[in-house]
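User: Here's a chain of 133 residues. Predict its fold as tokens.
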Amino acid sequence: MRKIISILFMLAILISITLAISPSASAATKPIAGNDAYVKGQVINQQTGEPIELALVIFDGMHHDDTDANGDFYMPVPANRAIGIGVFKTGFIPKLNVNIPALEPGEVLELSYPIELIPWSIFNMGSMQLLSI
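Assistant: Prediction complete.
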């Protein structure tokens, strides 16, 4: 019972964080600066290889893009500085710190690999002890 409560608690925290850092849809389309660079990529389910629609791709806690039906995203990022992006989707373990190198203004970096999210369902209850309160 304690493990189930711990899992529910962690899910509630992840949902709260996602909602707290998600700006309005109009904020996602606003330029970050006059000289943005861009990152293009895809998010997939690690277990099935299927694309994940409406995953939240975020950096700096406020700039984001949502993946489309094919799991694809295209988002502006600040030029001339390396960043880490995170990917969140309900039902999946978040992927944090996908490293993006510093890009020149106007440069588009197309990730050569998909970002894989792991479904929560593939973990057995024993591995969740690390999340216990």
